Amino acid sequence: MELVYPPVVGLAKTMFRVLDNKIEVQGGEHIPTSGGAVLASNHSSYLDFIYCGLGAQPSKRLVRFMAKKAVFDHKISGPLMRGMKHIPVDRKAGTAAFREAIESLRRGEIVGVFPEATISESFTIKALKSGAARMAQEAGVPLIPMAVWGPHRLWTKGRKKELTKRHVPVIIKIGEPIQMPDGATAEAVTVLLKERLTRLLDDVQRAYPEKPAGEDDRWWLPAHLGGTAPLPQPSASV
Fold first, then answer.
1. Which residues have a Cβ under 8 Å from the Cβ of 62 and sit 6 or more positions away?
2. What is the 3-class SS of 14-59, one letter each residue?
3. Which of 87, 95, 155, 172 has the fewest CB atoms within 10 Å, measured from its CB?
4. How far apart are alpha carbons 238 and 232 in whole angstroms?
5. Tens of pLDDT, residues 162-216
6. Model confidence pTM above 0.90
7. Which are the contacts of 3, defined by CB distance < 8 A and separation ≥ 6?
């Protein structure tokens, strides 16, 4: 019985309408209508989980996101996160969160993961952790890549949040499930996931319907597209 999640989704959709967010979901057919799946998204905004969850709405699915424990400890967000059955991650004891995610997947839930672990300030795909691939392999479920572009203009790391900013376009693009080659390691699958996420993110960035309003507004574009976001750091091994 879902008592918290549906009202929160309804409130979010109301806010999208009030702010006239121009939200476009592409590839919604890749979200299975039943059964477990790992949904792996890029991470450029503190609001990403809201929009990633919206991407599963065409399939009428609710996504259980893995999020840092501090969010669950907060007096306001904590009860909501627990009520929506999201999964707390204590980075000092991550095994418990991993096991809880596996159990959720085997129950037929969709688990949402940000494999970059932290927000990418370059707005490109950072080095990925292998947890998403390991969960999908152990639970025997699809690994589905997703790119979200636009929410970082409302709230991202190092910038003042503008949650009431109106008319901001958001593109959510979901890719085909990654096929797990027989005998492939989680590290090899993670390399493939990074390639797919990079391609999806590039697609939505280039298709985005707005451009910076001026020189001072170029901060929200990655450097390779003419923006002033920091250059990506050299990739580390997964």
1. 2, 5, 9, 53, 56, 84, 109, 110
2. HHHHHHCCEEEEECHHHCCCCCCEEEEECCCCCCHHHHHHHHCHHH
3. 95
4. 16
5. 999 999 999 999 999 998 878 899 999 999 999 999 999 999 999 999 999 999 9
6. yes
7. 83
